[in-house]
Prior knowledge:
75% of the residues lie in helices and 0% in strands. It is built from 20 helices and no strands.
Amino acid sequence: xxxxxxxxxxxxxxLLPIGVFLVLYLGMGLVFEYILKIEMGFYNIPIVVVFxxxxxxxxxxxxxxxxxxxxxxxxxxxxxxDIFTMILIFLAAGVFVGVTGRSSAEAVAYFLLSVTPAWAAxxxxxxxxxxxxxxxxxxxxxxxxxxxxAVAVAKVSGFSLPxxxxxxxxxxxxxxxxxxxxxxxxxxxxxxxCQMKDKFRANFKIALPAALVxxxxxxxxxxxxGIEQIxxxxxxxxxxxxxxxxxxxxxxxxxxFAVLLVGIVSGIIITIATGTTNVMNxxxxxxxxxxxxxxxxxxxxxxxxxxxxIREFGGFEALLSFIRRVFKGRVGGRLGVGLLVxxxxxxxxxxxxxxxxAGPIAKEISEEYEISPKEAASLLDTFSCVFQGIIPYxxxxxxxxxxxxxxxxxxxxxxxxxxxxxxYLLALSSVLFIILGAKKKK
Length: 442
């Protein structure tokens, strides 16, 4: 058994399981979505089953190891402390989202719309989406909750529906990238071994300029709209408290489990006290929130096992050898990390899965090119959100379009794409960050 060998052997064939996964998932997704015209075709594919097939391929490789020895390799990969921590955080974050629910997110949007000029409504949709997604840690959840509000604003104001939806999607990716309880943040930080507060600070320097320029562009486009007033239903600002507590705790660097516990407890107290829900519904929502993380957790476990076998057989060394040839210097290494996770996201249409798959390889690249853990985590999360925010077959785009159509709106992914200012500016900001930041000494 050669698990402890010091000599690193490069075997490109060891990457075959990743290729099998990408061909099966991307191939079936494209067929379902664009040939068979199945709604949400990519998300009808059982990704856990596809990963099981890829893991099976990995198990048939490397005949130098017996099957029992391969089980030991996989157990070491899955039993890593960071993997277990990631799974626990996924569960706690799911419970928090289940407790806070829909009413809290809507309260944010309606509050901001009610205290600002009507002509700035689209900019407010962007700001509200930024806040909600940062607090909830989910871009898909934010888009699901705020797209109906965007459709309503477009109908009563005359603003372009693609512009309203594009603003919501941009804000949703802002929070997905920065939130302390986002599964992308959890996966990126744990795979690179860095603190969430450190990744947040590095990430914020990239995301804030892109968000501010996006806001200016939307305001300039909206200034001469002539919109006078937008009616907002009643809302309860008390529902914002759990979100605010989680944001403050995360930025202050408090342990993520403690932060989530405070958010969950405060959310339970406030939702019960305000009559937003009852005890039985609350328990059901908590269970649904936790179980909603099942697929993400299973993917994390299977990818960890598969990557352990690929690393043992020399796949990571082969990939590193390729990166050494193609990407040169500190700028090249950082671009390599970003493009690696971007390619994974294009293939999987899921930024969390992309980070989980690219994370172990990115860690090897980071050590090779002297990239700090917080910088590597930031690059993984940022580039995955850039690509996820603009692919027309991603869950974010599909849910936004389907929700708008259900509510009587008329739009398509290709009408929304030109209005996705934030993802495009985030890509530009990321490249500038790499070029400027790579010149600094470690």
